[in-house]
Amino acid sequence: MTDTVSGSRARTRQAILDAATAVFARNPGATLGDVAVAAGVGRTTLHRYYADRAELVTALHVEAGRRLEAARLRARIGEDTGAEAVRRLGQEYFDLGDILSLLFNNQVTLEGGAEPEGDSCDPEFEAMVRRGYADGSIDPSLPADWVQSVLWAQLYAGWSYLAERQVSRHEALRLVLHSLVNSLHPRG
């Protein structure tokens, strides 16, 4: 019985986090009541999991970090050419959707190399870029932290373009990846 209860609690908790991600991405000023409605739970239930907005935002911070790390693992940044690994990472991050909106709107922030505003790269990202220098797929005149900034700038541009121009996600992703890879490639 305990596993069923904890499984049910985990599903409810995840439903609330998923709803909060979607609701806050579209309306940063949304209420907890808006989140409860989107999650299909009552306000009392929501408050059993998250006492107030600050607690929910803290949980979203953790959730965003978890999803970014999972995307990074799926991207297999230690494999293939550096540019191909950056391209895969861009695609995996793009697919995070509303999590990116929360990051770009500074509703959640992250520590370390995944943060769009980070001052330096984590060692794995830097190793990926250095591998790109060595295999000729990334211009060695581009510092790793610049490559990271270009990645996040392209992701922002893609999601903005998607919202403003109402193009398909597929087309926005194609533009992001094309621009990203071509901006990193050595010339001549």
From TrEMBL:
DNA-binding span(s): 31-50
PROSITE patterns: HTH_TETR_2 (PS50977)
SUPFAM superfamilies per record: Homeodomain-like (SSF46689)
Residue ranges of domain HTH tetR-type in the record: 10-68
Origin: domain of life: Bacteria
Any Pfam family: TetR_N
Name of protein: Putative TetR-family transcriptional regulator
Keywords associated with the record: DNA-binding, Transcription, Transcription regulation
Molecular function in Gene Ontology: DNA-binding transcription factor activity; transcription cis-regulatory region binding
Alphabetized InterPro entries for the sequence: Homeodomain-like_sf, HTH-type_TetR-like_transc_reg, HTH_TetR
